[in-house]
């Protein structure tokens, strides 16, 4: 009897492990970053480098907003990765960027994480289904930013492709993650 139970547990464990190991790090996005905040989601921030502006991918958020029908909506969305545009902003080091937040009110908390964009931390999406690339955060530079809606950011970075991950909190509205893609030449 013990052999039979042991055998069945071995089969069950093998089946579970096979299913887990065959899962890929790929998905087809059904809730792509929003461009039109009239649905109650947060508006995107922008980043400007050398006169070129990039609109952020809107990542994970919890947000309170008014819809086009003037209804108050509390919405939380959890993304599989941090979205950033496919085409990076180009810069030389030191990188001088201008971050512009979409609200007139200053945030209560504002942070910036910068990490290299590599094949290891990119979340694969089905080709042609999205205009954003998705990234899992990695080790890098972390700093708190001034609590203002527009500011200059200057950093020394080596050549490479980087994700600029901005996390903002507004007490009355909620919190949101923004993703930008920057190539340092």
What is the topological layout?
Layout: H1 2-21, E1 26-27, E2 46-49, E3 52-55, E4 57-66, E5 72-77, E6 82-85, E7 89-91, E8 95-100, E9 109-116, E10 122-125, E11 132-135, E12 140-144, E13 150-155, E14 160-170, E15 174-184
Parallel strand pairs: 1-10, 7-15
Antiparallel strand pairs: 2-3, 2-8, 4-5, 4-15, 6-11, 8-13, 9-12, 9-14, 10-11, 14-15
What proportion strand? over 45%
Structural class: mainly beta
Q: What's the β-strand tally?
A: 15
Rg, Cα atoms, Å: 20 Å
The helix/strand series, from N terminus to C terminus, equals HEEEEEEEEEEEEEEE
How would a textbook summarize the main sheet? Answer: 7 strands, mixed
Beginning-to-end CA distance, first to last residue = 67 Å
Relative helix content: 10-25%
User: What integer is the average pLDDT?
Assistant: 82
List the uncertain runs.
2-36
The total domain count is 1
Globally, the shape reads globular
Q: Given the structure, what is the number of helices?
A: 1
